[in-house]
Write a structure and sequence with these properties.
There is one protein chain. The chain is an alpha+beta fold. Helices cover 32% and strands 26% of the residues. The protein has 3 helices and 7 strands; from the N terminus they run H-E-E-E-E-H-E-H-E-E. The strands form 2 sheets. Strands 1-2-7-5-6 form a 5-stranded mixed β-sheet, with helices on one face. Strands 3-4 form a two-stranded antiparallel sheet. Helix 3 links the parallel strand 5 and strand 6. The radius of gyration is 14 Å and the shape is globular.
């Protein structure tokens, strides 16, 4: 086992199976030393864990938990493509939050993904980030997360 596989085991985290794409794309692509994941929704065991807009049907803390699930799904896509132990740096996280009118807490929601990456990767998990409020996400999901990681 490599360092990141061991770290996941220490944390009691199992990567889920890679979520099936909803359309004509793949879960992750490698180019050079980087892996880009497609946007990952909060699927758990093949089903969307929640729907609705944050600030209306869902509160920020619940949405933050779903952002963590999205990040786990993104890590699963990285693992399936190149192996999680090949990650040398988390470069960027982009989070999209389906937001009710007037909701401005997108950064706190996307912290669910960022904090998970910090738990798993430590300093290597520190990353650049965008947290964007949107009107709608696929299937009515409350949050979607994309990752860019550097691999060796």
């Amino acid at each position: 086992m490599g360092a990141w596989t061991e770290r996941l085991a220490e944390l009691g985290i199992e990567l889920p199976e890679v979520a099936r794409p909803l359309a004509a794309y793949v879960p992750a692509v490698r180019t050079g030393a980087h892996v880009y994941t497609s946007g990952q929704l909060p699927f758990v065991s093949g089903a969307l864990a929640a729907t609705g807009k944050v600030g209306a049907e869902l509160g920020p803390e619940e949405a933050k938990r779903h952002a963590r699930t999205c990040a786990l799904n993104a890590l699963a896509a990285v693992d399936a493509l190149v192996g999680i132990d090949s990650v040398v740096r988390v470069v960027k996280v982009t989070g999209f939050v389906a937001s009710a009118d007037g909701f401005t807490g997108q950064p706190a929601v996307v912290n669910g993904a960022s904090e998970l990456l910090g738990e798993v990767f430590g300093d290597v998990g520190q990353h650049a980030r965008s947290a964007v409020g949107v009107a709608e996400l696929p299937l009515g999901a409350p949050v979607e997360i994309e990752l860019i990681v550097e691999v060796g």
